[in-house]
Design brief:
The structure is a homodimer of 245-residue chains.
Chain A: H1 2-11, H2 18-27, E1 30-34, E2 39-41, E3 49-55, E4 58-63, E5 69-75, H3 85-88, E6 94-97, E7 101-107, H4 108-117, H5 119-145, H6 148-165, E8 173-175, H7 180-187, H8 191-203, E9 207-210, E10 213-216, H9 219-225
Antiparallel strand pairs in A: 1-7, 2-6, 3-7, 4-5, 4-6, 8-10, 9-10
Chain A binds a DNA duplex (30 and 30 nucleotides) through residues 147-148, 179-181, 189-193, 195-196, 199, 210.
Domain HTH crp-type (chains A, B): 146-220
Pfam families (chains A, B): cNMP_binding, HTH_Crp_2
Keywords (chains A, B): DNA-binding, Kinase, Transcription, Transcription regulation, Transferase
Amino acid sequence: MGVTDDFLRERGRGLLSHDEIAVLEGAIDRVETFPARTAITRRGDRVRESTLLIEGAMCRYLDARDGFRQLLAYHVPGDFVDMHGYTLHRLDHDVATIVESRVAMVPHDRIDAIMRDAPRLAKMLWRSTLLDAAMHREWIFRLGRLDAAGRIAHFVCEVQARMEAIGRVKDGAFALPLTQQDIGEACGLTSVHVNRTLRRLREEGVADIGRGEARIADPRQLARIGEFDADYLYLDDGPWGDTDD
Amino acid sequence: MGVTDDFLRERGRGLLSHDEIAVLEGAIDRVETFPARTAITRRGDRVRESTLLIEGAMCRYLDARDGFRQLLAYHVPGDFVDMHGYTLHRLDHDVATIVESRVAMVPHDRIDAIMRDAPRLAKMLWRSTLLDAAMHREWIFRLGRLDAAGRIAHFVCEVQARMEAIGRVKDGAFALPLTQQDIGEACGLTSVHVNRTLRRLREEGVADIGRGEARIADPRQLARIGEFDADYLYLDDGPWGDTDD
DNA sequence: CGGAGTGTTGATATTCCTCAACGCGTGTGG
DNA sequence: CCACACGCGTTGAGGAATATCAACACTCCG
């Protein structure tokens, strides 16, 4: 469990006490590795543990009648992927990996114990579900009010901000292991239209997205196109939240 | 505070102990009445209390550059409107009334006390934010995957299900105090297109929506058009959640 | 070597938006 | 009491954005 331990220490930097890190680490039952493009849980499943993504990329989605999916969330390392399964017990959507991923499994009864014994930590877990909801809200905005370029730009800005927060952006570039089809399923567009829109963004010198990564040439312009404001990610409060008040 | 008391008793029917109802009631600082179409809190505001809608209708939204809003949620009596403000401290969107509304105000420090002293109740509050997120997810699906008729149908189905859960549907009809512009802002459509789509739904004998109410003539067909499945509302678990395990 | 998945491009169809006009009801001030 | 403005719903005509259908190139991998 050493890797998990390092991971938590790094993510908790200064905000969690030694005891709290120990409690969180103790809540992890095991770490599993799933291959790329694999469904972990399905809509309707009764869940008894929640998952913390340690390495890789995951997503959550709903299936539509026409066979396409609507992505609901994109997950980067450090995200609690389905903390909402705790309390709701049953999933209302599917969860899957995008690339091979390492995932820490946290049984719900251990979260019960945290709720009981470590209220500060409990509030952090709650907070992670609230951040999730805040992101959902921006996805609603993106789909309801923006055109194709705006939706893609907004999505890419969000992922960049979150990757930046975990130190995974180098010179404006970061891993984005999504096909154009995937991006379409995140943004409510066909893959064909995603293709044309990405080409435009590339030709206009805004961003080059493809081959598993995103290179943002003009972040300001990208944010303008996507009407993006990172406020909703509450990044100023640090990865584990501003729980001092 | 008698009205609040009755309200809580009715909503908590059998699921909350006498003590728990007392705690919840004690958390309410006061009840305020706001006129129709009034913003209660704004994006970026620091919030120190959360609001429980007792009577009326409210919504939450984000503003777009073009001056239009994107609605994020529609609230009926019994909803905690911004429980997420607790823990997140700052709002990432606006909250407003749609019609004149009575709202119970719950200071955050009293929620702290509930977290500390009444974990079962705390879990219920958490649960309300998770239900909120589940609804957000369906809104994402609606906007990303459905056409105009589907979006409106899905939205109306959701409101019907929630109104039903609080006993406010009579003969397939319920209050829906929204203009076509509002519906457009909920569904990512222009009011003109909402108008044409509502006409079609009416002419096809599916639903008649307007003049402040919705009359659902063919619920099955409406659900089919909107690819609606009420699972995500977790209504089987009762208004306060299935917290027995 | 063949096949599947992905990215790319073109031609055409459809949905939805934009702009514009008008009716109707309601409230309001003269 | 009338005149008028305003918000809302309604309808029409034309245009823009996006989907659909189809074909083909490229890469990776069995």
